[in-house]
Amino acid sequence: MRRTLKKYLPDPETIRRNPWLRPFAGSLLHPRLWHLNRHSAAGAVAAGLFCGLIPGPLQMIGAAICAFIFRVNLPLALFTTLYTNPFTIVPLYVIAYQIGRGLTADHGNFVAPPEFSATAFVGWTEAMQAWMLSAAMPLGVGLIVLATGLAIAGYLMTKAAWRIYLIRAWRRRRGSI
Predict the structure, then answer these.
(1) Global pTM?
(2) Distance (Å, whole) CA 149 – CA 128
């Protein structure tokens, strides 16, 4: 499994040669950030799944920070954030919003955002802020709960998949002896 994953992940030498990343080479080249085993892979998947729900371009930065803090495989953590993309982000945020509504006891109906009005731009801006704040609490709670659930599930599934792979490989080797 390690060989399969290493085919798709960059090696530390590319970091060492990159002129933009050279100032960070000391911390980026820590061996545990590039080591790939059952524990570092599971932690990297969990970090990537958790940080994948961070809005915008901050997902990979969050995953990199988590990889540094928890000393898990950096490339795998960054790669795992890619499960959120323009096709999946809206359904994931709707699910998170529904989870948050259930947990915060916000049982009101969803209110559509206010119509844009160029003539009453200030009024529209205030109405839009009020609308966003009304959705912020359920969405924030839901995102944290969903991200935590995805991280735990990803961690456990990666550990289980790696273990199953090792058991099968061990049985194949044992059968060939």
Answers:
(1) 0.77
(2) 30
